[in-house]
Structures are given as C-alpha cells and as structure tokens.
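Encode chain A's predicted structure.
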Amino acid sequence: MVSATGQALFNAPARSDRVAGGSGQGHGRDRAIALLRSGLFVVGQVVLLASLYVLYDLGRHEAVGREPEALHHARRVWDLERLFDLPNESSLQALALRSTHLPEFANRFYIAVHFPAAILFLLWVLIFHRPAWRRVRTVIVASTGAALLIHIAYPLAPPRFLPRMLPDVDLVDTGAVFGPSPYGPHDTVANQYAAMPSLHIGWAILEAWGVITILRTRARWLAIIHPVITTLVVVVTANHYWIDGIIGGALVVTAVQLTRPEVQARLRLWAITARLPVRGQPLDPVVAVSAVDSSPAAAGLLPSARRDRDRDRGEASAARRKVTAADAPAAAEREVPAD
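Encoded structure for chain A:
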C-alpha cells in the first residue's frame, strides 16, 4: 500500500513534465506576443516621429514669402552679436578657408551627418534602451516643437546672405564655392530662411546627452565631440549664427530639465494644488510631497499635506502597536501546554 505522500512522490515527475511542457508552450506563446507587441510599438513610434517631422517641415515653410523680413532680422542678429562681443563668424571661416579641404569637409558633414545621426540615435534608444525612450522622445518632440514656433514667428536669413546687405561682411557661401551645396539653384524643398534656432546644434546636444546619460563607460564622454564639431561646421559654412546655436541648445537643455523625474513630480503637485487636469491617475498630494521631499524647495509646499502625512503615519504605528498588544495574551495561551 502506497501512502498519499508516496503517490505524490511517484506522480511528481510525470506531473512536473506535463507542467513543464505546458509552461514551455505558454512561455513560447507569451514571448511571441511580447515580440509582436514590441515590434508594433517600434513601428508606431517610428510613424509618430515621421509624422511629427512632416509637420515640422511643413511649418518651416511658413517663412517662404517673408524673405525681406528674414533679411532684416539677419542684420539685427548680426548687430546683436557684435553688441555682446561674440566671436565674429567671418574670422572663424577665414581660418578654415586657408585650406580647400576643410570647407569641403564641413559642407559634407553639414549635409550627411545631421539626419542620419539623429535617426540612428533614436533607433538605438528605441530598440536597445527602451526604459530611456519616453524621456528622449519627449525631449526631442518638445524642443523641435518650440523650434518650429520660433521658425514661424521669427524668420531669419543665414549669415551667408549678409554680404548682399552689408558689403563689409566677408562671409562666403562655402557650399556654392567649394561644394557640395545642400541647396540647388531651383530648390523648392528646403527653407533657407529658417536659421533660428539651429537644430543641427540642438539635436547634436540631445544625442550627446542621451549617450552620456544611458551608457556607463568612460568612452561615453566622447559623445561631446559631436556637438562641438557640429557647432564649428554650421558656423564655418555660414549657415548659422552663434545665437542660433545658443538658442537651439537652450531649447534642448530646457526640455531635458523639465523631464527630470523630480521636476515632473513638482509639476504634477502644482497642477493638483491648482486643480488642473493631470494625465493618468490622480496623484495623492501626500505622495507627491514625499516624492519631492529631498528637494529644499519642497519645504514650503503643501504644509497641510505634510502634516496629514505625518499624522497618518503616527496613527498607523499606534494601530499596529494596539494590535500587537491585543494578540499577546492569545499567543501566550496557545503556547501553554494543556494539562
């Protein structure tokens, strides 16, 4: 006669095999579903970014027909840079023009690196570093959207157009002189009057920030070289002013700061206190205060909520002590052996 325990032991291998087989099939099915969902997510994000780029490109063309205004802004930007004693773009270009190879390299870099680098960076984050994707996506969408608004509100001719109005400015259109040029003689696609801000520099800073933030090796700091070279290239080719790069970089830096988790917690807290709609589930003010407790700025936020939180914690501790005290006699009776 076999006991229940023996039956369980004898039957265990067969059952475990069946369970293992079932779990293997279930695991394979779950994995296939997960891969399908991941693939659909990647495709959806690519379509989203492509759609946003199409909107951005269409919006940039709002400057078409406003060439006189863009040229007037170019003169004002040039004067503003001289007022703040920024380095003269023509001086930097003069150094590069000592070699015919440097201007040609700068032209090729300007044409061939900007979009491929951005696409590769976004795909790298989307496919291999998914946890960082949401923030990277938010930064690029926010900074590019702000840049589009500036393009529409402030059309600006690039510095290579300045010699038409200011004969004393000796900037050269390196694309037209040395080649290759990103703008053909009958180009109807590109908007040459949307120099402000420079997304060449802005996106290069975003890509360097992403690489440095995501990776943990010392080599990640080499990513800084990309925005440095990009800045020199856009100035040497006379496609952007220093101010274009400063504003383009400032947009990205601002978006990076606003997407920090602690800043997001503060923004949600302030939205709740102002009774503004907040995306997702409502956030308990006590939880929100706890999320930003480490910040010095949190000391003056919702003092009543902080007092309520401390009171709730005290009441919970007292309740636990009462339960423990009430259970003690019963536990003692269970431990005393019966006569």
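Residues 268-326 form one domain.
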